[in-house]
Design a protein that fits this description.
This protein has 247 residues and is α/β, with parallel strands linked by helices. The chain has six helices and eight strands, in the order H-H-E-E-E-H-E-E-H-E-E-H-E-H. It has an eight-stranded mixed sheet with strand order 1-2-4-3-5-6-7-8, sandwiched between helices. It starts with a helix and ends with a helix.
């Protein structure tokens, strides 16, 4: 080893160490996520509606007579099947629900996951997109880029960083009164990005975690209603806004 190599070796060693630390940290982050509960698994094993796998990343929950379709992006670091109970409730209300699996459970890594899904169900006229938490924000970005192909947006404990003011998207915002995860200041601050026609509903006693079935999320408030009740109320609100009051 010459003099120059001896001088550079500490720098090389430090860089190698930083790379190793980054790889280990990323591995821990990727593998540390919220798993679907037994309740969610039970829905997939014994569904009350038809459940089909459309492709390697999409599960379809299909009612007998679908009135509209909803593409759904899961929350950050949440196993996508945790939303199976919610999708089933929505399907029972008349929505054909398309639940998307995201790379390493992060919707930000596949904002365009909704591409190509409309073509698989050409008989469906009304199309909505939505998601929970980070998934909702990513769905809003997708909606802002494809507003001419969609009829509305569902934001569950989420807000839109994308400007939707000039779109005609019917938008529904829902969150729980006991939500301890969603940043309320950002939620209020980004309301100005929503279209003129938007509705907001606060579920009394609901929290952040109970839109899915994955247990209690870190930092969340304690819900005073059941997981099942929050999902049923959410599905009922979506039916009321998008199906019963569709104009």
């Amino acid at each position: 080893m010459n003099k120059r190599q001896r001088l550079l070796w500490p720098i090389h060693a430090m860089l190698i160490g930083l790379v190793i630390i980054c790889v280990i940290s990323m591995g821990k982050y990727i593998h540390n996520y919220y798993h679907a509960t037994a309740q969610a698994q039970a829905v997939l094993e014994h569904p009350e509606v038809t459940v089909e796998r459309i492709n390697s990343r999409t599960l379809a929950f299909i009612p007998e007579q679908p009135k509209a379709a909803l593409i759904f992006y899961p929350g950050e670091k949440v196993e996508y099947t945790a939303y199976a109970p919610l999708m089933q409730e929505l399907s029972k209300q008349g929505f054909l629900c398309l639940l998307e699996k995201m790379p390493v459970n992060l919707a930000v890594l596949d904002i365009t996951a909704a591409d190509g899904l409309r073509e698989k169900f050409p008989d469906i006229e009304k199309w909505y997109i939505g998601g929970h938490s980070l998934g909702g924000s990513m769905a809003a970005i997708y909606a802002s880029r494809h507003a001419d192909q969609l009829d509305g947006l569902v934001l569950l404990a989420a807000y839109s960083t994308a400007d939707l003011r000039r779109t005609k998207l019917k938008t529904l915002c829902i969150y729980g009164s006991n939500d301890g995860v969603m940043n309320r200041d950002k939620y209020r601050g980004y309301k100005g990005n929503l279209p003129v026609y938007y509705a907001e509903t606060i579920i009394s006693g609901g929290n952040h975690s109970y839109f899915g079935s994955y247990g209690q999320q870190d930092g969340d408030g304690t819900a005073s209603i059941s997981n099942e009740e929050q999902m049923a109320v959410t599905a009922s609100i979506c039916r009321s806004i998008f199906l019963e009051n569709d104009t």
